[in-house]
Specification:
Aspartate Aminotransferase, domain 1, 2 domains, 4-stranded mixed sheet, 19% strand, globular, binds pyridoxal-5'-phosphate
């Protein structure tokens, strides 16, 4: 049997990982500023994370949600504390798409309405509802097409107001990434998020903060939406939540009440996933990783801004993007090939940095030097 070929691949086989580094099967070392697509939050194979998963594996890995799982309660308590959303309720699942799927569905159950507002360049996942609010026709199969989704320009308060004025009583929810990831690191403006909050309040709609990529400390705050100083009704999470162990979830404001069987999952919240997620939060607190993301992220942005060949440095914390003009379009490829540094990208010309939140300053310094060196080489070629 062959693999179903859905992604173009780098010709590299990674066999070992530690902190912000990975090694291939030839023993070559790479600096990982991509974090396996923003997944590695506390660093690859962190010893506390490995130990907690190992210990749990030797006790029980899985049982269904038909019994009490105290680890879920511990995770909810810890997450409430670390995120500052102690009065929220936690529902666990397995991925980012699934988290958004459940968020959108719950909002519709809650309001009894069908319409959803989403924004240009949004990415919310590949499953049915999640992909229907994703602004990329290539990902949307005919079966996912729906008239229930209204796409509006990102950060356009007037368009949002006009939309609510016209059909506010039909809108179930507004879904927005605090910082668009796949869309190219576009930061939602504080005033825009406040406007979403006030319109949702006025018209009885649910504000869904997709925090799958920009959440879990990546921006330097636990949720990047928190920069606006207003709460969303539902936050969706995944990626950094398990540091590579598959787990996702939504946290739900207290005014949205649960009803038996509206949401459900077989694997979500299993013992092993909860142990991994608890380990992540424990390390985040212990090693003060949000502070590190602020500090190292600030250094990276400031140094990148000084490099005149690259444009529009943007982002928050350790979620950073910049535009690569045509003359140096091979920068990402050359960083990997010559400097052994993984970075992320967004089409057509954006480099995305999504490293572990434990990235050391000296690794950030090394990256800046490597970028300068590769740009010089391309200019003099
Ligand atoms: C903002 C955002 N939402 C949702 C998803 C989907 O997450 P998953 O791939 O875990 O389904 C992603 C994945 O890149 C994402 O960036």
């Amino acid at each position: 049997m062959q693999l179903f070929d859905v992604y173009p691949l780098n010709n590299i086989t990674i066999t070992k990982a530690k902190g912000s580094y990975v090694w291939d099967d030839q023993g070559e070392q790479y600096l990982d500023l991509y974090g396996g697509h923003a997944v590695i939050s506390i660093g690859h194979t962190h010893p506390h994370w490995v130990k907690r998963i190992e210990e749990q594996l030797n006790k029980i890995a899985f049982y269904s949600n038909s019994i009490k799982i105290p680890l879920q309660v511990q995770l909810a308590e810890k997450l409430g504390k670390v995120s500052g959303k102690e009065d929220y309720q936690l529902f666990l699942c397995n991925s980012g798409a699934e988290a958004n799927e459940n968020a959108l569905k719950l909002a519709s159950f809650h309001t009894g309405r069908k319409k959803v507002v989403a924004f240009s360049k949004a990415f919310h996942g590949r499953t049915s509802l999640a992909v229907s609010v994703t602004d990329n026709k290539n990902y949307v199969a005919p079966v996912n097409e729906t008239d229930n989704v209204i796409f509006l320009p990102f950060n356009d308060e007037k368009a949002l107001e006009a939309c609510f004025k016209k059909q506010g009583d039909e809108i179930s929810s507004v879904i927005i990434e605090g910082i668009q990831g796949v869309g190219g690191i576009n930061v939602a403006e504080v005033s825009f998020l406040k406007k979403i909050r006030s319109l949702c309040d006025q018209y009885g709609a649910v504000y869904i903060a997709d925090s799958v990529q920009c959440g879990y400390g990546r921006s330097g705050k636990f949720f990047s939406h928190d920069f606006a100083g207003v709460n969303a009704d539902i936050y969706s999470m995944a990626k950094g939540m398990g540091n590579g162990f598959p787990i996702g979830g939504i946290i739900i404001a207290p005014h949205i009440k649960p009803k038996h069987f509206q949401l459900g999952t077989t694997f979500g919240g299993n013992h092993l996933a909860c142990a991994a997620a608890l380990a992540v939060l424990e390390v985040m607190e212990e090693e003060k990783l949000l502070g590190n993301a602020v500090m190292v992220g600030k250094y990276l942005r400031e140094e990148l801004e000084k490099i005149e060949e690259i444009e529009n440095v943007r982002g928050r914390g350790l979620m950073i993007g910049f535009d690569v003009p045509e003359e140096i379009k091979d920068l990402k490829k050359n960083l990997l090939l010559n400097q052994k540094i993984f970075t992320g990208e967004a089409k057509p010309n954006v480099i995305r940095l999504l490293p572990s939140l434990a990235l050391k300053k000296r690794d950030a310094e090394h990256f800046i030097e490597a970028v300068k060196e590769e740009i010089e080489k391309m200019k003099s070629a």
